[in-house]
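FORM 12-B: Structure-to-Sequence Request
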C-alpha cells in the first residue's frame, strides 16, 4: 500500500528517513512529503497550499492510500480524509489529533516576520523529549524549518461527514491509549469522538518516534495498513 508520511511542524520529508526503509522491507510503498513552506524554500505558503500538496499525493496513488500525520499534521491527514474519503483507505495519527472545523491549524507559538520558529525545548520538556539525547536535540533544532504564519494561523475547513467512515489508528507516544480514550470519551477530541472506527496503539517513545523508534513505528504503521 502507498503510505503517505506527513511530518509535523518544523520538519520536512527527511524526518522519515529511518522509517522509509523499514516500511519498504515490510512490503509497502512509503511516500514522505515535503510540504510547501516546510522544506521547499517558500516562506509565504498557506495551509491551503499544504492541503493541496497532500491531496496531490493522494490523487497520484495507484489505489486508496493510508495517510499518516504526525503532531500538528494529524489535521492535514484528516483534511485529506475529508476531501478524498473514497481515496483514503485509512488515517494514522501519531502524537496528535485533528483540529475541528473553524479552528486554527497550529497557532501555538508567536510568529515573527511572518514565521513561527521552533521555540526551543522548554515547551517540550518531560515526556515529549525524554527519549531524545542532547545530540539529537541539537540536530533537530539546527534543522528546524520556521513555519509560515499562513500555515500556522490557517483556518481548518471540514465539510464531508464521510470522513467519519475512514478508519483511524491513533499511535500514542508520549501519552498512552487509556489517556487518549478518556479524552475522546470526555469530548475533548470531537473529530475522533465522531469517527466510527478508531484503534488506539501504544509506542514507548516521546513525541518524535520517527527519530527515536523508527523500526517500531514502521511496524505499527505496516500493521495498520494491512489490518
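FORM 12-B RESPONSE
SEQUENCE OUT:
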Amino acid at each position: 500500500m502507498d503510505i503517505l508520511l506527513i511530518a509535523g511542524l518544523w520538519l520536512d520529508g527527511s524526518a522519515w528517513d529511518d522509517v522509509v526503509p523499514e516500511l519498504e522491507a515490510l512490503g509497502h510503498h512509503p511516500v514522505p512529503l515535503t510540504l510547501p513552506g516546510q522544506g521547499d524554500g517558500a516562506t509565504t505558503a498557506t495551509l491551503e497550499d499544504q492541503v493541496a500538496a497532500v491531496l496531490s499525493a493522494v490523487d497520484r496513488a495507484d489505489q486508496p492510500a493510508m495517510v499518516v500525520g504526525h503532531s500538528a499534521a494529524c489535521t492535514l491527514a484528516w483534511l485529506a480524509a475529508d476531501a478524498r474519503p473514497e481515496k483514503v483507505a485509512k488515517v494514522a495519527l501519531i502524537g496528535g489529533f485533528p483540529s475541528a472545523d473553524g479552528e486554527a491549524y497550529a497557532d501555538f507559538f508567536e510568529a515573527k516576520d511572518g514565521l513561527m520558529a521552533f521555540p526551543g525545548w522548554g515547551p517540550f520538556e518531560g515526556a515529549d523529549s525524554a527519549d531524545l539525547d542532547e545530540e539529537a536535540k541539537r540536530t533537530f533544532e539546527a534543522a528546524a524549518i520556521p513555519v509560515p504564519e499562513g500555515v500556522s494561523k490557517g483556518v481548518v475547513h471540514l465539510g464531508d461527514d464521510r470522513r467519519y467512515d475512514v478508519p483511524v489508528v491513533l499511535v500514542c507516544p508520549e501519552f498512552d491509549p487509556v489517556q487518549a480514550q478518556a479524552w475522546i470519551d470526555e469530548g475533548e477530541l470531537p473529530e475522533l469522538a465522531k469517527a466510527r472506527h478508531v484503534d488506539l496503539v501504544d509506542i514507548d517513545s516521546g513525541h518524535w518516534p520517527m527519530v527515536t523508534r523508527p523500526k517500531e513505528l514502521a511496524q505499527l504503521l505496516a500493521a495498520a495498513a494491512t489490518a
